[in-house]
Amino acid sequence: MKTVSAAEMRKLDRRTIEEAGVPGEELMRRAARGLTDSLLDLIELHGIARPHVLFIAGKGNNGGDAEVAHGFMTEEGIKSTLWQVEDIDWAKESAADFNIVVDGLLGTGTTGAPRGKFAEAVDFINRAQALKVAIDIPTGLHADSGEPQGETIRTDLTVTMGLPKTGLTRSAAVEYTGSIEVVDIGIPAEYIDTTAGCTEAELITKSDVQLPRRGRDAHKGSFGHVLLIGGAPGYTGAIAMAARAALRSGAGLVSVRVPEPIYEIVATAAGPEAMVKPFNEFSEIDLTGFDAVLAGPGLTRTPETKAFVERLLVECTVPLVLDADALSVSPETIAAAKSPVVLTPHPGEFATLFGTTVKQIQADRWTAAREAAKRTGKVIVLKGARTVVAAPGKKLAINGTGNPGMAKGGSGDVLAGLLTGLLGQGIEPLQAAKTAVWLHGKAGDIAAAKKTEAAMIATDLIDAFRSLQT
Q1: What's the distance, Cα to Cα, between the start and end of the chain in Å?
Q2: Residue 292 and residue 257: Cα distance in Å, rounded?
Q3: Cβ contact 100:51 at 8 Å
Q4: Looking at CB atoms within 10 Å, which of 87, 120, 182, 271 has the fewest?
Q5: What is the per-residue pLDDT for 60?
Q6: For position 469, what pLDDT does the model report?
């Protein structure tokens, strides 16, 4: 979804009011209704038995959204309290009675650090032992640059109105925004189309997720047959998790090839639905008859692995995902592949593959991903907080779902399996990559709500796929 500056969003609001004839009060009602729905979803997701929501309102549109949403929540039968920022003695108040605190202090038109009562409210919200939700953008965060301006609210969820603000996608904003949801407030499509927005990047949102329609006359062959290759003695979990994720992706058939010594372990761990077969030499692996191929999880980096990946890049005629230990060949070898290829490196793997450092990558993830896509001519999924999806000649796509609980061994293997399953169903590579990272992050948010960020593990993501609503 296109991202816009604060000024562009104000212009879109103004055009909708003045040219499309939608009253400003109606835009606020739509924003508040969307916020309310997000809060109800949050309550359900976290299983909050006795929810009590605190709305903290400033004087602008964000404060207005908070007031109207407070009314909607009350109508829904949810205990809800509204505080006006200027009326509260923040030194004497406590958030102990509230499960959720909603930041409606300052909007996108504000610049500079929060001051006075607003600064006190920011400190109050940050100290609250409750889920924190920002309206449009966290107070203290610059809407265009994503840079914090003094003390800034750290939220679990940002519900942004109309279109995502460009600052929400920036690396500097990751610590403050939490997951990002976008509320459609009815801005006419033609107004959005004629707005320039950010020319570098877009935000991946629920509206960008595309899954094949499953016809009533469908059979298992209708949704692709994928091949996953990986594993080594001592490294059996990665390929098993990738297989389980591919099964949950909607793929019709999932085949797995693993070294003979670990065959029984992987066959058991991957589940009865996966067709696991052993090999002794890479030359035994037949690539024909598949709709997508994944290589890498748990494969280990050996000269034999590298030679096999080089063979894959020459012989594979269907979409190919290279993950983990398969990222051991040169970018030029990858560029020469005739089939579509998607690379899924974390920063360390990316640094090794492209001859840079993790520090340089983290300093400018956008440029790193863009240059890698240009160099290889392939789709790049640079994993991490705000995963970046890059393809030659296309805008970068920045993911808005996920949380730090996903920083666990195996999370990347789950993503690789999910992505391969989507490719096997005929989704083109860039779209499959965007869909996979959004679903993967959303599953992570579900898992964190159920298990906590600290306790969740990679297989919880696979279990959470069953709860996804798309």
Answers
A1: 16
A2: 14
A3: yes
A4: 87
A5: 87
A6: 63
413: phi then psi, degrees, rounded to nearest 5: -65, -40
Place of tokens 């020459």: 314
Closest CA to 252 of 388, 424, 403, 409: 424
Q: What is the pLDDT of residue 470?
A: 58
Instruction: Please tell me the distance from the alpha carbon of residue 240 to that of residue 274, in angstroms, as a whole number.
Output: 9
Positions in the chain short of pLDDT 50: none
User: Burial letters for 260-288: b for 16+ Cβ neighbours within 10 Å, e otherwise?
Assistant: eebbebbbebbeeebebebeeebeebebe
Residue that has been written with the tokens 């600052």 in this structure: 167
Sequence-distant (≥ 6) Cβ neighbours of residue 40 within 8 angstroms: 76, 78
| Cα–Cα distance, 318 to 241 (Å, whole number) | 22
The DSSP call for residue 4 is B
Taking the domain 6-199, which CATH number applies? 3.40.50.10260
Q: Judge if pTM exceeds 0.90.
A: yes
Which neighbouring-strand residues pair with 148?
141
One-letter identity of residue 112:
G
pLDDT confidence of residue 73 = 97
Domain 220-467: assigned CATH number: 3.40.1190.20
What's the CA gap between 306 and 325, in Å, rounded?
9
